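so my prof wants the structure for this chain in the tokens format not the other one, which i didnt know existed until like an hour ago. anyway here's the sequence
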Amino acid sequence: METSDLKHPEAAEKRAKVAAAEETIQVLDLYQTREKIYVRKLQGFFQNLKRFTGIPMLTAFLVLPWFQYDGRQLLWFDLPSRKFYVFTVTFWPQDFMLLAWALIIAAFALFTVTVMVGRVWCGFSCPQTVWTWLFMGTEHFWEGDRNARMKLDKAPMSWNKLWRKTGKQLTWVAIALITGLTFVGYFNPIRELVPGFFTLAAHPAAVFWTLFFTAMTYMNAAYLREQVCMYMCPYARFQSVMFDSDTLIVSYDKERGEPRGARKKGTDHRVEGKGDCVNCSLCVQVCPTGIDIRDGLQYECISCGLCIDACNAVMKKMDYPPGLIRFTTENNLEHHGSHILRPRFIGYLVVLTGIISAFIYVIVARVPLELDVIRDRNVLYREVENGFVENIYTLRINNMDVRDHSYSISASGDYAFLYRGESQVDVAKGEVLTTVVRLAMDPGLMTSPNTDVIFSVESVDDPELLENQESRFIGPRIR
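here's what i got, hopefully its the right format
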């Protein structure tokens, strides 16, 4: 404490309060509120490319649940029945390993694409990007371009502002509701869900999840937007691990563009000591995450290429060559050369090709039939007429095909068993049939107290549907 503080304790206390207030302000500044980004709409190659990637995905998402196949929804994940209908194939919980394979394939495909062309998945095909683009287009329709939206937000409330804001919000809610209904329609038949939702006849669980996904879509695409890409998506954080100096990324050519500065068209800017960048900031205005690509590669960049369209449009007006901002590699910028085929990319490609090939083989070779054999363990064996011994088995036949089938049942082994039970059964598609069969034989023929027995179930109308299951036949101990 200073000497003056001893003489004036009130002043010392006041200074301490001010210091504490300044410290509090510094802490609170760490939690900066979101600044709204007003994205400028600009035509160009990559803007059109976003349409060609986004519209087909939106169309497929909205349309696929409405198609029917063989009396059921073409794409339907029936969780209560534990059946997953994917086009003409039905998957069961026993096929869960295939889902793990599909996720592994998706991960390696993402790694391979990232090593080659960076974060283009985020810029063109990610659902968050596609829905954000759809909501931004709606915003542009109701409120106008960037300057008009900024002016409208700053203006006091008026009839013009009210009806434009209301129209935008209602359209956003409608898009979010359609998204929620469609998503839930993949798990609950959509032809029943949609009319049931609006007539209050739908199941409460279906209504809850529809409203939940409606709210999530509205929140993510209307307000969070770039916050999801920058802070919530883990891909933004670990993408740098997959990048190398030969990965294609959106880059600003500093050697050509610096120093920046405004100039008149037709003048020789090189004489003035300026680069090609006119410092118009259009590349920042069109960026959906609000970054300045001229500051170098940043994790917020989603590689959408909109800054390339903006810069090329300015270069065209100034009669400069395009490509000041372009997809290129770090090595190409620094050393004017790049390597496409490098060990990491080749490794990812080899692994991806291998697991895709194995996955396709498993799908093609998959037999939509499952047989479980459960031997009666309460009694090892029992004696029946003629001194024979008998074992009892419970057979569970699961018809995982999309058609009804008749199956023949047989048993074989080292001995000629006496088969007692149904030799042919009918199993409807998607159903499980349980039947009990008995095998008997003369124990005097057995050379050991137990032996292998193979049960075979074969489709009568389709011999390719064949499933074998091994079990044991137990008899008396041989002395």
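also thought this was worth mentioning. The CA atoms of residues 175 and 218 lie 8 Å apart.
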